[in-house]
Write a structure and sequence with these properties.
Number of helices of chain B: 6
Helix content of chain A: 40-55%
CATH superfamily of the largest domain in chain A: NagB/RpiA/CoA transferase-like
Strand content of chain B: 15-25%
Strand content of chain A: 5-15%
Number of strands of chain B: 12
Distance between the termini of chain B: 61 Å
CATH topology of the largest domain in chain A: Rossmann fold
Shape of chain B: elongated
Number of helices of chain A: 23
Oligomer: heterodimer
Strand order of the largest sheet of chain A: 1-10-7-4-2-3
Largest sheet of chain A: 6 strands, parallel
Order of helices and strands of chain B: HHHEHEHEEEEEEHEEEE
Helix content of chain B: 25-40%
Number of strands of chain A: 12
Shape of chain A: globular
Radius of gyration of chain A: 26 Å
Chain lengths: 471, 233
């Protein structure tokens, strides 16, 4: 199957998946209502979005210099900074660090960059016991799935799915234990993962932001799992990407004010941690080494292109929560690491164009994603750019032929009028007295799910002309 | 290798050579003198008495337990009362040295107090906050021997002591207080704590105590030297 055919099949399967549809139905009541409330409670929210956009644009325009400043200040704080052009580089660097630390158990907090380079799978192949500690990521890991949302990885699962996964994954616990409620399951996960936290040799976290002025990383969670991941093992690795840097803390606060409000509707996530280097003399706790791995993986190409604003993204997920397509098909159908509108724009750049450019079709261009984006990324026009690029590919031959036929007619008004009249009359006749078509030529993809309203028989131009005559 | 490649790609993308004086100056100035972005919050400065009220209201909404006490030396007994009211063990771990060491722990002999970073079996951890931020009810903790970061995450109960005079309106005001308390250096971790640990990952329902503490109590006291105006609403 082509990528496009795979995508179409995944969409059809998602639409027919009743449990998934029930899970997705809760998104508007949860995240969307939460954001609306948080926005209403913060006067100046819209002004803050413009400030955030400007901070990101300024940083991107001076990215080389801020990355240099970050590197120098991180080194001063005792961190070791590593640069990785692509996933292979990053995986090699991280595996080396784990080997040098004689690591067996590696705890991990949530990081979309790590999903992007399939870090967990590669470390596991090297016989490391890698455990996701974010509860949603843990669920996705034990079910051998990918996250279906960038901040709520297991949003596609029902409570009963989780209970089944826990019974299969935790065979050392009594088979008849009570796993009826989320509380019971969270208590179980807490105990299981606590063992891992306490035995881990290396802890890997992502970073929401890097602060150039001090060489710090800012890491946000609600569970506190990143803090246990970075504070208990003897080595802490931060895996992040070049677009995460901000100049100063003064620049980080406006972004943090927007992040949780846009994501879950919280004013601030429970734990926002600024980490700067390894343990200090006298600390008595904390890692002996702190490594920061900074990945490019296609981002410099975006920086060079007219899609640079995509790099403003702070990964809040608001665009997918508000997307009618995402909320209909869920994250897995996209088949990409980053789903939703931002995924459709970002993924083709990371994977190389061609492979996933068809994701730009997964949009109605309604523009809600743009309206809620905390850093004002013009997602619709970015999606349109991908469609334009995709259009010139050989696989798009059929749509090119049809569009060329339409263009031929549109440039010849008389022929267009005749064709439009013919079309309108034919469809009106087919629609019959109900005025609706249950099946239409070339439009079976539409009519499979709903009727096509039939034209009334006269074209717009005819009606326009007759109205002008009567006036 | 990768480093050179990435910097070359960034500079090519931006059509710069990395030696442009104007760009260097813009960056150096921003780093030396961080910008003052417009305050989103409510615009007008918040009167000091109002700060504590707002801070407390946020804590309550977050499901945390704010406890106001009149004097610093009442902290040990207030902690013992809090733990026993919840039927929790009268045990506690705090950092060594620092402001918490000076408290009259001996006045509450029933409360077993240990010091140092948290251990696996600890039931309650005690930290002192450098600041409280009224805009979101956020506690600002700085790691160090007197305030180990693990105390905030391993035990099921986290108790934080906060001077009412250290409540400020915005995050921007809190960070200089951290630097001042740590001799001008950024500590290994600065923890901004806004309520207890929580997750919504199973069935979309918010449940407390995902990995970190299930409950957060904040003891707000007024230092003796400060005017004793009431802090409750």
């Amino acid at each position: 199957m082509t990528d496009r055919a795979t995508f179409d099949a995944a969409v059809a399967a998602a639409l027919a998946d009743a449990p998934l549809q029930r899970a997705l139905a809760d998104v508007p009541a949860g995240f969307v209502a939460g954001r609306r409330r948080a926005r209403a409670e913060l006067p100046g929210f819209e002004r803050l979005r413009r400030t955030a956009r400007d901070i990101r644009d300024h940083t991107l325009a001076h990215l080389d210099l801020y990355l240099e400043a970050f590197e120098a200040n991180a080194a001063k704080a005792g961190s070791e900074v590593h640069w990785a052009s692509d996933g292979e580089d990053a995986r090699r660097i991280i595996l080396d660090i784990c080997r040098k630390a004689d690591a067996r158990v590696v705890t991990k907090s949530k990081s979309m960059v790590s999903e992007e380079i399939e870090l967990r799978e590669h470390l596991a192949k090297a016989s490391l016991d890698v455990v996701e500690t974010d509860l949603g990521e843990y669920l996705v890991q034990i079910r051998n799935e990918r996250p279906s949302h960038i901040i709520a990885p297991a949003i596609h699962l029902r409570v009963s799915d989780v209970a089944d996964a826990f019974r299969a994954q935790h065979p050392h616990l009594p088979a008849d234990r009570d796993l009826e409620t989320p509380e019971a399951m969270i208590a179980e996960a807490r105990d299981v993962l606590r063992e891992k936290f306490l035995s881990a040799d290396v802890g890997i976290t992502g970073a929401n932001f890097l602060v150039a002025e001090t060489g710090s990383a800012i890491i946000v969670t609600n569970e506190g799992n990143a803090d246990l991941t970075m504070s208990l093992p003897k080595v802490h690795i931060v895996l992040t990407s070049i677009d995460k840097v901000v100049p100063t803390f003064a620049d980080a606060w406006p972004l943090l004010r927007l992040l949780a409000r846009s994501a879950t509707g919280q004013a601030l996530s429970a734990y926002t941690t600024i980490v700067t280097g390894p343990r200090r003399p006298g600390d008595g706790e904390g890692p002996e080494a702190c490594h920061i791995v900074i990945l490019d993986n296609g981002r410099t190409e975006l920086l060079a292109s007219d899609m640079r604003p995509v790099l403003r993204c702070i990964r809040c997920g608001a665009c997918m929560n508000h997307c009618p397509v995402y909320c209909s098909i869920g994250g897995h159908a996209y088949g990409s690491v980053y789903p939703g509108p931002i995924g459709a724009v970002l993924t083709p750049a990371l994977a190389g164009p061609g492979a996933t450019a068809h994701l730009a079709e997964a949009s109605t261009f309604c523009g809600r994603c743009e309206e809620v984006c905390p850093v004002e990324i013009p997602l619709v026009s970015m999606l349109r750019k991908w469609r334009t690029r995709d259009f010139s590919r050989p696989a798009s031959r059929r749509s090119r032929v049809l569009l060329r036929a339409w263009a031929f007619l549109a440039a010849r008004p008389r022929a267009y009028r005749v064709a439009a009249r013919l079309g309108a009359r034919t469809l009106a006749a087919l629609g019959g007295s109900r005025g609706r078509l249950q099946r239409a030529p070339f439009a079976s993809a539409w009519t499979r799910y709903r009727d096509l309203p039939a034209p009334e028989g006269r074209t717009f131009q005819e009606q326009w002309a007759s109205r002008r005559r009567t006036e | 290798m990768s480093r050179e490649r990435i910097f070359a790609s960034v500079r090519e993308a931006l059509s710069v050579n990395g030696k442009d004086r104007a760009r260097e100056r813009a960056v150096a100035e921003r780093l030396a003198q961080p910008p003052r972005h417009p305050s989103d919050a409510s615009g007008a400065p918040v009167p000091p008495a109002e700060l504590a009220v707002r801070f407390k209201a946020h804590l309550q909404r977050l499901g945390a337990d704010p406890i106001e006490i009149a004097r610093e030396d009442e902290i040990p007994s207030a902690i013992a009362n809090y733990l026993s009211a919840l039927g929790l063990p009268l045990r506690l771990r705090r950092g060594s040295g620092g402001p918490l060491a000076a408290l009259p722990w001996e006045t509450v002999p029933a409360l077993a107090v240990e010091t140092g970073p948290a251990l696996a079996g600890d039931t309650a951890g005690l930290s002192h906050a450098i600041a409280g931020v009224a805009e979101t009810g956020t506690l600002v903790l700085a790691s160090g021997p007197d305030s180990p970061v693990t105390l905030a995450f391993l035990p099921e109960t986290h108790i934080v002591v906060l001077n009412a005079g250290a409540i400020v309106s915005r995050y921007e005001e809190a960070l200089p207080m951290v630097l001042a308390s740590c001799g001008g250096h950024v500590p290994r971790t600065v923890n901004l704590v806004t309520g207890a640990s929580r997750t919504g990952d199973i069935g979309g329902k918010i449940v407390m105590g995902a990995h970190g503490p299930r409950r957060l109590a904040v003891l707000i006291y007024r230092a003796a030297a400060e005017p004793a105006d009431p802090i409750s609403a």
